[in-house]
Design brief:
CATH class of the largest domain: Alpha Beta
CATH topology of the largest domain: Rossmann fold
Distance between the termini: 46 Å
Number of strands: 5
Largest sheet: 5 strands, parallel
Radius of gyration: 16 Å
Shape: globular
Bound molecules: iron/sulfur cluster
Number of domains: 2
Structural class: alpha/beta
CATH architecture of the largest domain: 3-Layer(aba) Sandwich
Strand order of the largest sheet: 3-2-1-4-5
């Protein structure tokens, strides 16, 4: 019987997530990310999360990504900066899906690995997580994974397991942001995927 559904945004973040959530009880890793573009990148991150589950020995499921619902959720907010309304809606959509999956699988609690990122608004994530959990009759585990050097620990784990680490958050707009931030561009990082989306 699972105690916690751990929403996984990517394999590197799930390393510390699994380590810190395991003391609460048996964990089911749940990959749900309709925000990841393009499809090749989605499959790459999903395969890596699945591989990590085998390495760290936790059970794993991939949630069917509802891309249309996600696009509807962020529509009209495409130009918002990261941590703005687009990201709030994206995070809310993914937390809602995690809660729904936990409810369907009779898992009493859920948490998310999104809280390891230095770029995310953790207060917002926890507030929405708690509110969504309440609506579904679940418990939300407000674990802030970036505390206690969580992000640095994820780098150590990534090296240990040889994990793929992406260089942008997930959606096409986050690729553009990274491109602007690094004037040398995606050509130098070898991200043909990013360039392809930027041209669209
Ligand atoms: S930057 Fe990340 S959190 Fe924000 S909308 Fe894009 S994928 Fe979602």
């Amino acid at each position: 019987m699972y105690r916690i559904l751990m929403h996984i945004c990517c394999a590197p973040d799930a390393t510390v997530g699994f380590e810190r959530l395991s003391p609460f009880g048996k964990v089911l890793g749940y990959f749900y990310n309709p925000n990841i573009e393009p499809l090749a990148e989605y499959h790459r991150r999903e395969a890596e999360a699945r591989r990590l589950a085998g390495l760290m020995k936790f059970d794993y499921r991939e949630g069917r990504p509802d891309r249309q619902a996600w696009r509807t959720a962020v529509a009209g907010f495409e130009d918002e900066p990261e941590r703005g309304e687009r990201c709030r809606r994206c995070i809310e959509h993914n937390l809602e899906a995690a809660a729904k999956a936990a409810s369907e699988l009779n898992i009493p609690a859920f948490a998310t690995t999104l809280t390891i990122s230095p770029h995310k608004d953790v207060d917002y994530i926890h507030a929405r997580g708690a509110e969504i959990a309440g609506r579904h009759g679940l418990e939300y585990i407000a674990e802030t994974l970036r505390k206690k050097d969580g992000f640095k620990q994820s780098l150590v784990y990534s090296k240990k397991y040889g994990l793929y680490r992406q260089d942008y958050c997930g959606c096409r707009w986050s690729i553009r942001r990274e491109h602007k931030r690094n004037r040398s561009g995606l050509e130098q990082s070898g991200s043909a995927v990013g360039l392809e989306l930027i041209r669209k």
